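>> received
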Amino acid sequence: MSFTKINATASTLTKNRTEGSIVPISGMCVTCVDGCIGMCEIGKSAYRGVETIYPQPFGIISSASEKNYPVDLSHFTILGSCVGAHGIAADPDKAIFTNVNLEQSIGHDKGIKLKLPFVIPGLGSTAIAKNNWEGLAIGAAISGMIVTIGENICGMDPKSEMKNGRIFRSPEMEKRVNLFKNWQQDGYGTIVVQTNVEDTRIGVHEYVIEKLGVQVAELKWGQGAKDIGGEVKIKDLKHAQMLKDRGYIVLPDPYDPDIIKAFEQRIFHEFERHSRIGMVEMESFIKRAEELRKAGAKYVFLKTGAYRPRDLALAVKCASEAKIDLLTVDGAGGGTAMSPWRMMCEWGVPGVELWSLLYQYLEKMNKKGKHIPDVALAGGFILEDQIFKGFALGAPYVKLIGMARGPLAAAMVGKNIGKRIEEESIPVYVERFGNSIEEIFITAPELKRKYGEDFEKLPPGAIGLYTYMKRIEQGLKQLMCGSRKFALKYFTRDDIAALTQEAANISGIPYIMDADREEAEKLLN
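>> returned
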């Protein structure tokens, strides 16, 4: 069995000529014919070269791995009960799913309060994040969640102003922060600003803390989609030159006369901007966390990716020693923007394995009496059953679930429906619900009552995200009610069972036929 599509995928707009007859080890057509024009990745690479590394089309997609990992969250099942209730009276008139409490508080002082236990991890300088930020930020604000401004915003902003290599104004960063702040409801949720190596060099955290009133600074080691620094594509020569002037790695060299000529002749259409990789040392990490607190950060987060197990152990250790407020651990396989396609499929520790190791490391630290940060899991969560399993798999340490592609998709759909309404070109499968915002979006009446005249200011993207989160909210409440858990703090690892021995061995979650064995025997005897 092959776990990955090797030589043809929708991600790179490639396909095999003999789609029914593929060599398993290489993904090549069984008969590679002289005369083929090159539809597969080998063929496309023969004439477009490095362009074929990246998911396409640039700027209008988010992307994820097609790798079929041997174990995933579907290999666990949720266990319900017909006995008792945790967090509410064991009374059928009170133990109703609508009474499940999904509010959460995190941070060293539990000062970050959320209506819903979700964080949208870093959405950075890519076109798709920028084009949908309005819906994401406002949708997160009215839903009471955390949203994270990702890396390279200030460095990529053409209108940024710098002095002595340090940022002192970025209109794009100001816009992103204020869109959330202007719609934040009753202090729920928060805006987080994340930095990488490039951002740290130009003082992004100091800028947003001092000038924009941001309280939460997140240090980023990596993500589940790639093992290198962030990258985007640049379609404008002057912009590419500006980024090189600011110290970024830009390929090919936008100042090379031959490259400029080739670009102007449309031989290639995009430059690549890359960020440098970080070099983690525990002492310098702890020192940086303290610097941020002295600069005015009330909370300091760390986000790490799907690096090898020893690096996960280092993240847990650093988060403990530096008293980090939230540690986000992102499993392999997903990307909200332009992440290298093959790397997305073939590097990193997959989610179930990574989160299981995380649980083991946290248990070890906890038994030693060390500080345990609040923890978030990320890596492909989109619906309530996966979210339930994530909380159970990491209980009692996991406080939040990170979701990026799901919220981004919801915001995009909401935005696009809004455009279609304006253009009077609503697709049939949407038009059957109506032809206005109020008719199509099921939460519109609720939002209209709540915001009155301001409802008209809500972008359709934000309504789309809010509506999606309402579905997640009710779905999760129903699953928790069935397991008799009426608040997040009552999650335990025995709320789920493994459906395969392999999933049980990896996670430490009992195999379904072994679950409750002692209690069952005791009852029967």
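>> The chain has three domains: 1-53, 69-228+278-525, 231-274.
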